[in-house]
């Protein structure tokens, strides 16, 4: 049933006139994706030249094949040989799927220039994502969740999600949350055009088709307003009939693994030939991040799991957008030199760990690496220190502090690494402060190994407490807590979902109640402070002791 006052008179007339053939709608979508709102003349010309440089002639039509696409990635220094056979085809298949989206008909395995333009358009990141506007209505832009979902659809080759429990009402509730989930600074204007995209008519993919059809309507002479978005629902329902619903879509861990590895390899820019990190250096990091997505290894990753994974790796897709933008940029952006400036790598905070933490917090937004120094470190096998000393070290700085705690499970000997990001130590030690802006996260615990996870802090609670037994980040009776004993030799990590009190650090529900006892190997405290001398490994250096002697 259409909403009151909505009719399909114009739409029916346009259908009879042939305005909504698949070819015509896709042509307009290519024009939208390649228009001035997304590509200027120079960028469009660069995209065309890159396409033509590797295109092959197929029956008089230039087409981009998978080998041609891979050769372009290699020319951007984005695809190392170790990832060529896996990551390259996966990314190409994603573009191939999106080249005719939201339609789903069979089409040649190679891409025409309009098809490539459409596919790249669908993968534009928010807030530069596609916007389906016409003069007749305010239209709708793709939201941050839409951008991730459409990428997921392109990666998902399996259709076995129906083997997972499915609650239609819960699916719609989460769809509503995602439809209106914007950062604070964007919410005030984007939410004005946000609409629910999963209802009795169809799921999110059906809603995409409605928006595309709506934006493809012919212009009517003023003062005629044109057709409203809801007028296209019956047409979209007919075109979408028989399509498998989104909850059937899954991506296997085997496909997601090389994709994540590709993103990590390019995290700090499209690398030059002098590599500061090799793909094999990122194998462990890749597995830790992958486990955050794979909640059911027997089936694979469905859309809600994919979305959950990005909750603990929100900046992971930045390298993808950098790679795709290289297709239309005349000059490749310079590689970020952060990894080269990390002093004395080989500690806990080495290059792979630095990249991994950057997928959680966006390291450049929270720690200026030029001014990031190892403030204090503890080797559990060699050094003598106690929890009070650690608490004193982390409570004094005015600028953000990063803590890393590493060790092994006392029973399984599995490696664990936890950490804490404390934006304002001198205040957070009393009560956790609100985040300063969207780019600066709240005080949080995080897990890097064996499963990447993030546990946000609760306002007004102390980030840590000290007692005769040791230092506690969180309350062991509720939520998430990391308790390090007084001699800094052991730690216990707990997650309690059914605690009576409000958690200090919020748990990740799907991982359940758990407890891990850890034999510590090392602790590091890094601080952003350009005037602080760098310490030596294992304790303070002489200069560091002099600089912070007044703290003790």
From TrEMBL:
Q: Which residues form the TLDc domain?
A: 350-526
Q: Which organism is it from?
A: Penicillium alfredii
Taxonomic superkingdom: Eukaryota
A Pfam family this chain is assigned to: TLD
Which InterPro entries does the annotation name? TLDc_dom
What is this protein identified as? TLDc domain-containing protein
